[in-house]
């Protein structure tokens, strides 16, 4: 069994879970109920997962966390831009 396929599927599904939040914030321009601290810490943690994936050579961890960082980082940036 190719474990990277399982990792890619898991990464795809967990990354996809951020998409509704990104769409909602983008449409509404409201980040009132989003925690700045949570998203900042989460993005930092995802960044460390990316470093870890490079160190161990895991494509599935790398790809899924790059995508997650783009989505969660987008929410974080919108939180900083849409101060409300």
Task: Write a compact overview of the structure shown.
81% of the residues lie in helices and 0% in strands. It is an all-alpha fold and 84 residues long.
Summarize the helices and strands and which ones pair or pack.
Elements: H1 3-16, H2 19-28, H3 36-56, H4 59-81
CATH topology, what is it called?
Monooxygenase
Distance between the termini: 49 Å
Low-confidence stretches: none
Order of helices and strands: HHHH
Question: Helicity, in percent?
Answer: over 70%
CATH class: Mainly Alpha
What report would you give on this structure?
By secondary structure, the protein is mainly α. It has one domain: Monooxygenase (Up-down Bundle). Helix content is 81%, strand content 0%. It contains four helices and no strands. α1 runs parallel beside α4, α2 (19-28) runs parallel beside α4 (59-81) and α3 (36-56) runs antiparallel to α4. The model has no long low-confidence stretch (mean pLDDT 91).
Search tags:
mainly alpha, Monooxygenase, 81% helix, 84 residues
């Amino acid at each position: 069994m190719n474990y990277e396929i399982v990792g890619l599927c898991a990464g795809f599904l967990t990354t996809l879970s951020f998409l509704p939040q990104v769409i909602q914030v983008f449409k509404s321009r409201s980040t009132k109920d989003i925690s700045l601290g949570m998203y900042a810490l989460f993005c930092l943690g995802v960044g460390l997962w990316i470093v870890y994936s490079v160190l161990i050579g895991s494509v599935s961890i790398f790809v899924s966390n790059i995508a997650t960082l783009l989505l969660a980082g987008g929410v974080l940036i919108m939180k900083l831009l849409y101060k409300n």
